[in-house]
Amino acid sequence: MKTTIVDVAKKAKVSIATVSRVINGNYPVKEATREKVLAVIRSLKYVPNMQAREFNRQKSTIVGVVVPSIYNMFFAEVMNGVEEHFTNESYSLMLCCSKNDSKLEMRCINDFMARNVSGIIVVSPHTENLQNTFYERIARQIPLVFINSYEKHPNISYVSNDQDAGARLAINYLLEHKHRDILFIRGEHSDSYDIKEQAYVDIMKRRHYFHEKHMINIGDGNSNETVDNTMQKVLEILPSSEATAVFACNDLMAAGVVNACKKLNIAIPEELSIVGYDNIALSRFIEPKLTTVEQNMFLLGSQAAQLLLEKINSDNQSSKRIMLENSLVERESVGVCSR
Amino acid sequence: MKTTIVDVAKKAKVSIATVSRVINGNYPVKEATREKVLAVIRSLKYVPNMQAREFNRQKSTIVGVVVPSIYNMFFAEVMNGVEEHFTNESYSLMLCCSKNDSKLEMRCINDFMARNVSGIIVVSPHTENLQNTFYERIARQIPLVFINSYEKHPNISYVSNDQDAGARLAINYLLEHKHRDILFIRGEHSDSYDIKEQAYVDIMKRRHYFHEKHMINIGDGNSNETVDNTMQKVLEILPSSEATAVFACNDLMAAGVVNACKKLNIAIPEELSIVGYDNIALSRFIEPKLTTVEQNMFLLGSQAAQLLLEKINSDNQSSKRIMLENSLVERESVGVCSR
DNA sequence: TTGAAAGCGCTAACAT
DNA sequence: ATGTTAGCGCTTTCAA
To answer: Which nucleotides of D are covered by protein (CB under 7 A)?
Structure first.
């Protein structure tokens, strides 16, 4: 059997309450007693049972994080920000992967709730769950922070990149390079894609460059197969397309386009220009190096952790919204349109 | 206040014991009572408090996973295997990142212990912690599974790739291509590097191709900066080196070598051949595509989950060791030595 | 088939 | 400054 507070109390010849006070340091204890208790704790190698403590206190120092996938380094880097912030505050992290599936996402959240986590961060929540009242109900019961979601619920805190601005940055950059036939490549089930699509449609329609067929949805945008799926799709489309440029909603998709071009012997950026999004490490490693829109992923994660902490410490009262700026990282995948 | 089992019992006019039996289905309950209780549970939206349940049962359905970094997709893919296996068994995952630091790793483990997780998986445990008795003590108290560790403790289960064989595969492949001046690039604080180094030293000494100066340690092998650090180091060394090939302990380092070559205008594979290790997605995306040794990362993770489950269900009695085979993935980064 | 009650390890209010 | 004790929500033995 493991050593409990009772064993310590007995051996130190004090009450369990005193031991508890020594451990938590929240009530006065005479120095001599304190020393005595601490000595016993050391000699018994006593470690307080967090499970019991947190159950008793009706809270926990666990936070839950839900991500749609771990195959996109974007999420790993966000996680890193979250992790760093929370371990400093001696919270532990529970991780759940929704696989871009709304039902699974709900299950993750429900699991976390049943475990009484003290708060939940959801990265890129599924659009379906945003449309019904699921999250409204959750947010009433527990601190909730969304990363990169743009619906506005009153009880939820948000940290997002300004992906509308970012998308406009990217598209205008392409426009400045004289491109007008720009393919738009997106994935499914995330606000982020919708935001970028709106920006794309808005700009292109305004200039009368818009063509329905230029909008391409490649399905799951963060899976193991995203790069290859995108390549496949582009392989079908590109040969018969007059497009001279591509704006991809994330770097994985952009990498897929690059690979398709290699297969088709299309020179980048001479014959086709590409702009990605996120600036994950991969984008610097592929050839040519991707021009892309930078999201500060670490910051996204650590700010979300910060807001969640504020919510936890204010009894779910403080709700904030943080919008981070994006910037365009100019590298080698964009050139002036030659047509 | 949240609905508890007491509320349900009251409303259903039965005892809490009966409600408990209905929920767990572990004791006979008359069908009529069962229905009644279930109806109340639904009407009250009652969700059992896992925290209370697990505290009472003196166990938990949480498993802890420790990884040295999340900047190498290797760990993400292993995690994915672990996650998939455990969510099917309705365990939850706690994640902790040790940043390749032995003290932090111990802290992660201790946190997990204090939370009464039911088992722990450590990916690439830190060599320092392997050398003292830390893990022996832990293994006596709790199910422990190591991924890619090669010390053998009796109470620990292991899932590893046969990295000795894998390294030999890679080096012999280079040898077959007539290379004899082969740089060996490794990182710090993991068994995996030591294993590969031994294989390298053994083969090269036997053939009298060994040179101390060909062994390069680039520090942390899985950080955000691994690629760039490796590039930096190689940039210093390569110009004055007679090496015609490189064996890198992971693909991140191999990518660093590729980048260095680009800066130095060294053609791959004509002037320098490179073999990596892991076969992370990145290795297919960079130019030239990396020849590398495949580790089945998903399998590594799911097998580890399997072994941990066996340990949990056998009260920490079953200890197994699984050694997975590697294979060489031939791509574009190796050619016949031209000297 | 059901209910009563002990107890899991700890905290915190109350008493001394 | 310290001890006593009532719970936290649940499972599980024991009795009925």
So the answer is: 1-5, 7-13
pLDDT at B1: 67
Residue–nucleotide distance: A47 CA to D13 C1' (Å): 29
Terminus-to-terminus CA distance in chain A, angstroms? 78
Which residues, in sequence order, are CB contacts of B285 under 8 Å at separation 6+? Answer: A227, A255, A259, A282, A285, A286
Within 7 Å of a protein beta carbon, the nucleotides of strand C are 1-5, 7-13
pLDDT 10s digits, B90-118: 899 999 999 999 999 999 999 999 999 99
| A51 vs B contacts (CB less than 8 Å) | 51, 54-55, 60, 115-116
CA distance A74 to B76: 11
User: Is residue A160 predicted with pLDDT exceeding 70?
Assistant: yes
Of B78, B44, B18, B26, give the one whose Cα is nearest residue B298.
B78
Tokens (6 digits) for B91? 């365990």
| Best CA proximity match to A267, nearest among A338, A216, A329 | A338
**Residue B95: which of A9, B115, A116, A22 has the closest Cα?**
B115
CATH label, A62-162+296-326, candidates 3.40.50.2300, 3.40.1260.10, 2.40.128.110, 3.40.50.1820:
3.40.50.2300
What's the whole-number mean pLDDT along residues A261-268?
A: 96
Tell me which DSSP letter residue B95 carries: E
Q: Where in chain B is the domain with CATH 3.40.50.2300?
A: 62-162+296-326, 163-295
For the record, the structure tokens of B143 come out as 């199910």
**Cβ count near A43 (within 10 Å):** 11
DSSP labels for A248-302?
ESSHHHHHHHHHHHHHHT--TTTT-EEEEEE--THHHHBSSPPEEEE--HHHHHH
- Cα separation, A171 vs A177, whole angstroms: 10
Nearest-by-CA chain B residue for A141: B2
